[in-house]
Amino acid sequence: MQHGPAVRRRKLGAELRALRTAAGLTSGDAARLAGWHQSKVSRIETGTSGAKPADVRLLLDVYGVHDPQLRELLLVLSGTGDGDGRHHWWHAYRGVLPPTYRDFISLESQASAMRTLETTVVPGLLQTPEYARAVTEAATEGASEERLDALVEVRLARQDVLRAEPPLELWAVLDEAVLRREVGGPEVMARQLGRLAEASRLPQVRLQVLPFSAGAHIGVTGPFVIFSFPRTSDLDVVVLDHLTTSHYLERKEDLRAYSEAFEALASHALSPEESSEFIAGAAAGV
């Protein structure tokens, strides 16, 4: 179990090592071509030290890597990205967002798919503004109106990944408690359930409800998110949220365990079609 930055360093180092090997270069060759000491290449590849974006760009040039999407992904792992700035818009909120949340958003912005189990609240990518504010206010008791406004702005801005080209593919399993918990009052909850019903019809969104009648399940231990990335499964990561921080799991055995758990939860949940009807019923007070 690691915090986000450590996981990103290790994943970045592993990917750079694989690219160096594919280019037929030793670490000494890479260091010579980059004008560095060999120890610097070794520290980057083992994740012992971070790599600046300029360092990553130089190594990718040395390895002959020109794929723009792969370069962008590796630059995000180093803490930034190229392009028009869309992938690091959250930097404007550095004074408001804790580092682990910024890490989460940066991974979310580059992921191709996201699987999530939610046991308490609606996934942030599907929240209405009123619902997002009610959840944020409850989670940050005593926060100023200015900070609340900024956090809600961030929550809503994150939803752009569902409208990107290509969009993030979201597969969410929602415990029935998510639909029954009255967040923000009856009117706010009614609009939120309507938003879920709309989202369930989007081609990039798959929603499944795990009803109370399913009984105890493996998800009772808490919610989790699995991010998957284009081109390589080696960058996939599991995120566990806690009150004051988030933890990131990267080991293959952890990824396998959580992927199997998610598949089991999905198999016990209602189908997407049944879930859509269930959500509509909850909205109607059934």
TrEMBL record:
InterPro entries: Cro/C1-type_HTH (IPR001387), DUF5753 (IPR043917), Lambda_DNA-bd_dom_sf (IPR010982). PROSITE patterns: HTH_CROC1. This is Helix-turn-helix transcriptional regulator. Pfam families: DUF5753, HTH_31. Residues 16-70 form the HTH cro/C1-type domain. SMART domains: HTH_XRE. CDD domains: HTH_XRE. It comes from Streptomyces lusitanus. It comes from the Bacteria.
